[in-house]
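User: Hi! I have a protein structure encoded as tokens and I'd like to know what sequence might fold into it. I'm fairly new to this, so please keep things simple.
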């Protein structure tokens, strides 16, 4: 096996942050079978800011201890996603910075209700390719928790 850069290797689960949204300490599930990344969100509403479409939503963090965080982000698109059971759903798409380990890069997320899922954030293959990550599915939490500053006014 070639020598791998430990800074490019992640496991099946990792700690992430969304610094532009003020979200830190979020566990993510790495899912190479999903092309798009998804964030657990409710109370989603579209509005306009400076003539451009934005969305306001509540991000849900944590599984044992529920935390809610109000967020706003520019709306990138509406996307129809087909789930593994064949159901189609139209979702809002936002782009925001994702921090994983010492890497920070822009990722597109669909906003959807993931309350029945164990992980509130799913990191799909497009984000993994853009971040240039290699995955070892036999391991979890390889990278350190991201040490990022949240945006001004964030919790």
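Assistant: Happy to help. Inverse folding works backwards from shape to sequence: for each of the 155 positions I chose a residue that suits the local structure. Here it is:
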């Amino acid at each position: 096996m070639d020598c791998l850069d430990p800074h490019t290797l992640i496991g099946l689960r990792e700690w992430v942050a969304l610094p532009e949204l003020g979200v830190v300490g979020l566990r993510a599930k790495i899912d190479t079978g999903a092309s798009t990344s998804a964030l657990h969100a409710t109370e989603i509403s579209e509005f306009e800011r400076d003539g451009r479409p934005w969305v306001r939503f509540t991000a849900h963090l944590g599984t044992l201890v529920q935390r809610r965080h109000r967020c706003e982000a520019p709306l990138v698109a509406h996307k129809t996603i087909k789930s593994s059971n064949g159901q189609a759903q139209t979702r809002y798409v936002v782009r925001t910075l994702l921090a994983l380990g010492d890497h920070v890069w822009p990722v597109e997320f669909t906003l959807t209700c993931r309350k029945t899922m164990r992980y509130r954030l799913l990191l799909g293959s497009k984000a993994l390719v853009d971040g240039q990550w290699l995955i070892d599915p036999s391991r979890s939490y390889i990278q350190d928790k991201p040490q990022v500053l949240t945006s001004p006014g964030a919790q």
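A useful reference point when you look it over: The chain has one domain: 6-135. Feel free to ask if any position seems puzzling.
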